[in-house]
Design goal:
The structure is a single chain. By secondary structure, this protein is of the alpha+beta class. Helices cover 32% and strands 24% of the residues. The protein has an eight-stranded mixed beta sheet. Strands 9-10-13-11-12 form a five-stranded mixed beta sheet, with helices on both faces. A hairpin with a 2-residue loop joins strand 11 and strand 12. The radius of gyration is 29 Å and the shape is globular.
């Protein structure tokens, strides 16, 4: 029998290693922009073509590289940021392994132009895996420009695991947004296919950057400069929470991180009112002694390990909780005053400014309570309203209130609808399509689910679960192992099943069809995107909805669709006809 173990070729080793750090265009942009920041750049321009698969160009105004360093930079484990292993405990730079450029060169065609201030002419370096690289003169300005062509062209199997161009471009935007949040003094520009899609101007503080990223949010500021740890947080009120954690940005020493313990601490600071499955919006910056945190635990440096995680998380909760509690109390007090003011003003006649009385004739309207009030008529707005035949069954969307309600109209009444419930109903309609119901994703690893105490047997609910796209096997006792889940549910499969079963235990729907309706609503809530439903799709759905069956439309645990119906009086209807 011949020996079966052999050494891999250097090219194969490099391409395998590249997969640890470079898995999509967004990771290339992240590595290159972080290199620019480490070089002292104050302005970075990122340009994409075809979501970065055809071209990624990152240009900065940093210190640049010496011609000799330019060739060394594309060798694996060549870096200027570390001299010894002990330097990791004093690390202040974002990069340190010396792998980024080598990894990119292993899966794409790479070109680098760079110039330092002390030389008259820049240099361009084009490394190649199959032949010697070329070094040539370049008339580039001070700084560095890296061009990445034909990403994964040499490893086409990688392309199968990428999302659509639209999604990959969105991931690059998220990377640029995180980098901008961590570096308020940076001017960052992102272009895609020749169009400027994002620009973050230089600002003076973390607060100004956070408010520019969340311009519509009333961010609450919390700060603690205790020994060994500085916390600087800007968080949105409880009412602005979302169903995913993508709107919460965590940074440690300027590095974007994904840390479940930090995420949980921020959520716990909001108290029980936040509820399971909801996450706040905002930004949290932590500055800590580099010796107290290990950044070398993840291939893409996205995860970290604290030397004393308990102390960090307790300090974070102690800092955030009082500020968030005071903000919540002020919000409730303001809302109560507004309700009192509305209640008192609702019994008073409206007195229009006499200067405009001739321009807007007044129409007397009798309210249901018999109190005569005066309102301005719709005037020209009626011309844009659909005909009675167009909305004979459904609703006409007037607009959105500041509290997030959808204000709709049918001829005899106004309707206030919950925007989240409408988005859930839209997604339920999509999930009911046969092609969607048949979509399921095989989980990489089975996920264990413990059944609630009141549900000893899953068989009564098997039909609804199977229709959704779940596959499972029994593990004995009260446990099952999920093996497939509906497409798009991802790592939330086990939590969704637990949550849905618990809701079934409380509601106790008897028929499989009723169970499926409950499941569809919960699944739609889990899959709901952060962005509002498209306006055209929302209007179309509302115009087709059966107004008499609004209460029967399935909703998730966050509340029903119909929140209020305000009928018009007979005179109000005749005045608008």
């Amino acid at each position: 029998m011949e020996a079966a173990i052999r050494l891999l070729s250097p090219a194969t080793v490099e391409r395998i290693a590249a997969g640890e750090a470079i898995d999509r265009p967004a990771s290339v942009v992240k590595e290159l922009v972080e290199n620019a920041l480490d070089a002292g750049a104050s302005r970075v321009e990122v340009e994409l073509q075809n979501a970065g698969l055809s071209l990624i160009r990152v240009r900065d105004d940093g210190r640049g590289m010496h011609p000799a360093d330019l060739q060394m930079a594309t060798l694996r484990h060549a870096t200027s940021k570390l001299q010894s292993f002990e330097d990791l405990e004093r690390l202040r730079t974002l990069g340190f392994r010396g792998e980024a450029l080598a990894s990119i060169a292993a899966v794409a065609t790479l070109g680098i132009e760079s110039k330092t201030r002390d030389v008259e002419e820049g240099r361009r370096w084009e490394p190649r895996s199959d032949r010697p690289g070329t070094l040539s003169a370049s008339g580039c300005p001070v700084g560095t420009c890296v061009e990445v062509h034909d990403l994964f062209g040499q490893t086409p199997a990688r392309l199968k695991f990428l999302r659509s161009h639209l999604r990959e471009a969105a991931l690059v935007r998220e990377v640029c947004q995180r980098i901008a949040l961590a570096n308020p003094s940076l001017h960052l520009v992102l272009r895609h296919n020749g169009r400027r899609v994002q620009e973050h101007l230089r600002v003076e503080s973390f607060e100004m950057r956070a408010r520019s990223i969340f311009p519509e949010e009333e961010l609450v500021h919390a700060r603690d400069e205790g020994p060994g740890l500085c916390i600087d947080a800007y968080l949105a009120p409880l009412a602005r929470s979302r169903t995913t954690a993508r709107g919460l940005f965590l940074f440690v020493n300027g590095r974007p991180v994904q840390d479940r313990a930090l995420l949980r601490s921020v959520c716990l600071a909001y108290g029980d009112a936040l509820g399971g499955g909801r996450y706040p919006l905002g930004v949290v910056h932590l500055e800590i002694d580099p010796a107290a945190v290990d950044v070398n635990v993840h291939p893409q440096k996205a995860e970290i390990r604290f030397r004393d995680p308990r102390e960090v998380n307790e300090r974070l909760m102690r800092t955030l909780a009082p500020v968030l509690r005071q903000s919540s109390e002020r919000t409730r007090a303001t809302a109560a005053k507004a309700e009192d003011a509305d209640a008192s003003s609702s019994h008073l006649p409206v007195t229009p400014d006499p200067r405009f009385a001739s321009a807007f004739p007044r129409s007397p309207v009798a309210t249901p309570s018999g109190v005569r009030e005066e309102f301005l008529p719709y005037g020209r707005l009626d011309e844009a309203r659909p005909t009675s035949s167009q909305t004979a069954r459904g609703l006409y969307l007037i607009g959105r209130s500041l509290e997030g309600w959808l204000v709709c109209e049918k001829r005899e009444a106004l309707y206030l609808l919950d925007a989240h419930a409408c988005a859930v109903a839209l997604r339920v309609a999509s999930l009911r399509r046969p092609e969607t119901m048949a979509t399921r994703t095989r989980l990489w690893f089975p996920e264990r689910v413990e059944l609630p105490p009141a549900i000893a047997d899953l068989r009564p609910y098997a039909e609804a679960l199977s229709a959704l796209g779940f596959e499972w096997s029994e593990m004995g006792g009260r446990s099952i192992a999920l093996r497939s889940a509906p497409g798009g549910l991802g790592g939330n499969a086990a939590s969704f099943v637990r949550k849905w079963l618990e809701r079934l235990r409380q509601a106790r729907p008897e028929s499989p069809s009723a169970q499926l309706e409950e499941a569809l609503a919960e699944l739609a809530c889990h899959l709901e995107t952060e962005d509002p439903a498209p306006e055209e799709a929302l209007r179309s759905w509302l115009e087709q909805v059966d107004v008499d069956r609004l209460d029967a439309i399935p909703s998730c645990e966050h509340g029903p669709l119909l929140r209020a119906r305000i009928p018009f009086s007979a005179k109000a209807r005749s005045g608008r006809s």
